[in-house]
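Researcher: Go.
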Amino acid sequence: MSSTTIEQNIIELSISKDNQPIINFLRDVNNKDIIDMIDRTVNLSIFITILNHLLETLSNSQDFDEKRYISIQCILKNINEGKVKNQIQIVKIVNRVCFELTKLKVPQIIELCQMCTKEIQKGTDTDNVWKELLPVLVNILEENVCVEFNGEELTGKEFKNHLIKTLIMMDWSANIVTSLTIMFSEILLDKDQHQQVVRKLCDQIERMTPQEIPMLIYQLLGLCKKQNSQIIFIKLQSYFNIRIYSNKESVNSDRNSMDVIGDSIDIAYVNAESTILYHVHQYANSGYDTKEYLNTLKTLTKTPEYVLHPFQLTFLLTISTIPFYEKNVFDIIKAAIFRALSDDQKRQESKWVRDMIPAFDDIEKVIQTIIECSVDERDVVVQGLVNLTFVLLSTSSSIGREHHVEKMWSIGKNIIKELIKKKRDLSQIIIQKLCNLIITGQNVHQYIRCLQMISKRFGLTFLENQKCIVELIEQSIQVSGPVASEILDVILPLTKLSHTTRDNLILMLRKGLHSKCIETRQMAVVGFIKLIKNLKISNSAALQNYENSFDSGMSVLSQISLTLTGRSMCAGVTNEALCLEILGILRRCFMQQADVKAKLYDNLYETICVNQDLCQPLLELLWSHFSSFYVVDVAILPPLNFSNAIQIKDTDAILTERLGKLIFTIAMIICKRRSIGDTSPMLQKFVDVFEILSTKMTQCDLEHFELDDGTDLLDILPESQKKMLILKEVMSTYEALISYNLCAWNLDSTSSGDTIKQLFTGYCRLNDFSKSLNKKKDKKKKADANKSTENQNETSRKEGGSEKRVFKPPDTVMTLDVASKLLTLLHQTSVDWSCPEQANILKRNILFHQYALQAVHNLFISLKQVKYLEEDKKSTHFDYCMEIAKLLFVRCIQRFDEISEFDYGTALLSLEVFNTILQVVNLHFKNHWLKFLNGICDLKETNINLAIEKILSNYSKLLEASDDDSAQDAEVAKLIINGFLMVGAQIAGKTNCTIANKNIEWMKQMTEDRKLFGKAVVNSFVTFLFKLYTKHKLSTTLQSSFATKLTDFFGRISDEEKEDGCVTGIFNEAASTTVFLCLCNEMKSMLDDVDWIILRIKAEATWISIPAQIDMEQKRESLRSKERSLSCQLCQIISIMIDINDVSMPMGPCCEMVFKINTNLYQTLCNLTKYFTMRSSKLNPAFQVARFNNVVKDTGKSLSPVVNKLILYMDHNQIEGIVSKKKDAKLLKNKVLKETKLLPKLILEMETFSSLVIKLSKKTNIDLFKYVGQGTARDFRIKDLKTVLAEKRQSDENADSSEDEEPLSKKNRT
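Model: Structure:
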């Protein structure tokens, strides 16, 4: 029968409702005819109809089982051979066949499974129908109780496991990996099978083209919805690290900036990564559970290099845009960044930690790489970066975290810079959000700094956000002074680009100038001054031309606009006219409060330095105000009317003018203009007046200021308050005139030295008078103390009120530039602007030296108290720090003996000022230590250690020359050591650092030979010695030697016979307790490092446990090495703690500290034991390889017995203390309670450690119990057992002798 006849008959007979005809027909058709029919029609569109009728008929009778199976085999064979071209046809055929599979017999199903397996083994890239068939076949077989396969009877589940194992063992072709993934997604796999399959599939990624990988990952994500998703992402990290990020680093090293991906990076891999990230985002957004992987990453934050890898960070940023994951993702990223920063700090502080923790690449470089790969196409990642920026900027500062928080702010700011640079359309979102945070927040410094950066680098972009600019301008008059000043620094660069912005700012500043709040008025004054600085007259033409192309807005200063209407000007107004108008506005400041005017005076000199053309109108403005205080009559003293600067209102005297600041400001402007050859009449007029002022002020005495009339200036009467204010202003005026004569000093000056000396004499006269005020007050207190008891309460109240009114000298009006010139004059051998005769007049004056150094010291203290320096002044402040520090180091510290012979107070002050400068540098210029120290030592080295060595060698010589028994040298030694510590802390942590080793040995020798001037100095010195040693040495020899020396001094608890302590160096009666506490703090620091590393190795163990790793054996060996190092470090700590616990220490802080450290030590041991319990098994006792058994042995056999003895020692000493000091029973009771409350916690940790060791021993079948023993019974014990036993023996002997004597006495009585 022909196949055509069969085809026609099947179609015709199937039309009938009666199935019997077609059944009879098919019964007569042989198998070969059916196969021929299928081969002929399988590629025809009508075949689906034929197939439906055929299979439906064959399924109605068991007689057709063979025909049905043969038909299915033939169909699948045709599809596998590629004879069916239409994909839709194939899908329909396969779906229909799958529907029939449940009707096949088990042997037939097994045969089909084997057929599918063979097709998979071939690995041909055909239609891969097995991916739909095999899951159905496996699921059918799994339901069977018994399956016969290869002569064996298996359960359906056993056959399934065998089949999956067979598939896993095959060598898969890369062509079918995606199909295999689809297939396995439909098969129910147990946990182990699933992991093996996923690992096998992920291993195939390396063999696939970048175009094939996204589809595979899409299917893998479906396969790993509930488990093992981490295998996928870690494999992808490895894959893209080699193909994108490693190449990216090499490209970045050769190119300073890139706006696109480098040529050496195949764009195909970047596109593949982008597609994968899109799939990940889609899956996560549709409910895909990434909680398992996020929990893994949360654990891995202790190893931040894994989490902060570019791919992992990109993945996290991708899913961070989904609200459900946002908080968790940013918590992970933030924790990883903070951990990386902390790791870096720990590495700097400890050589052991440096060996345990690898250096991590700069986080900003990682983010830069992500931005460059993502900015063009990955909008989701870019959105995540924007959100990450504000998460980092929102990090709040706290004690001890300032450096880390500053770094996180810096990272956030740099992300903003790169995003706006590469994707300008993000600027509006970023700027608006920053403005909102500034307006609504409180701690907004970091946000303002970001806006300052945007304003300076992307001014035109910023101007597109006019709404934000207006909001910022309005906000500037509503916030505190420092914040307002920072906001002004945001707005001012924009005023150069837009007249509209400038005019809005001027309007708001005018409004602020009339505010009720003094701080707002001060802000307005500062704003106007900064505006003048920005509007340089010399650049007015350029600004006007640029403005015409950008903004046609007219100034709101109508007076200027009207004045210029007749001139031939295109548009706008000149900077010169605007500056003059602003000066007219500032004229009204002279009617403001003294604090407002002080802000004006503080900034005018800098304004003239920038806009020198404004000098003439500014001098005229100042003259009109200054003349109201200047006394023209040369015969009248004083030459200034100080009374006009103070007003009496009700019961208070109010200062209305800071004459000292006014005169100093005018003096600086005069000297600046004279230095450039200005000879204008107004300038000469001021010069003449200041010469007269200098002369007449030298002639003034107390009576000229009405200060000698016996009035008590410390009284609360308004007249007394007025004279107090006059005294301060006169002293400031003397300072201002000294500054004027100093700055005006040149080679033509013939009497500058004499004039300054006379002015300083007048200043000293007032200073001595002010000191006498406080002395009088002290005498008055003593007199009041002798009054009758009836008025005692009233007197005490008066004293309480008067104690608050003490004279405080006014702040110096000098600035750092004047102070630097003054110190140069006093300490340099010669200066090119003075003749030696005049300079020597001041150089010989001891009080003047002290005054100059004290003024400089006050200036740097003020600088140290500023939380954030203005960005435009940082460079100037740093230069003055370096200049003055160099002068003091070269001329004072290196010549300390000479300066001491001249005046000991001057020498002491020079050390103090130098230390204060070091503190300022450490606070505000941490990143410029190399430049600073090179500047001091006049070096140009890239190695900071050379400059440090030069400075420390001078410090060490000074300290060696000091005398331990001299009270005077003790003050010097304290300053020397403080400076030594600050400079020494900058020693770079390098292997075999010569300077570090040299100073360690020197400091060790000092501790052995010298007493070091008491507790405070010893504490600083020993603490730094430990830090330096830990930073550069791996061993604990120093700590061990200190512990031994302390036991030699205090004695040992274990020694029954007490001997006198061995006194050497700092190990003496006065300082030994301090040294003991320093050693305890060092041990605590070492334990903290151990805890830090334990957390890290736990995370590394978690990382290694994840399959799909590369270089797995290398990572395992690295982990084992770290575990051995950790055990070794703990053994050394335990050895030292054994000695510390055996010290016969005094009760109090020492005992309390030791108990705390013991508790911490046992907690650390418990954590490490838990870790090894997790890592170890009977087959793999990891703790043995790590030599943890030595730690257990040392703890159980040596440490624990000593700790138990310490507990007995403490109990015994507490009882003796209570018995011997009954008068202080309450104090002793509190002390005992404080010390004994630590005991239960320590005992708990000791017992917990023992139980954990036993658990580890049971798990590994290795006997560790022999080391920990049974513990100590503490509920009931006999103290001083030997004494008790001796007493018991004596009492027994006495009892026996009394029994022998009793019968004899009875006999005698009878």
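Model: The beta strands are 147-149, 152-154, 646-649, 652-655.
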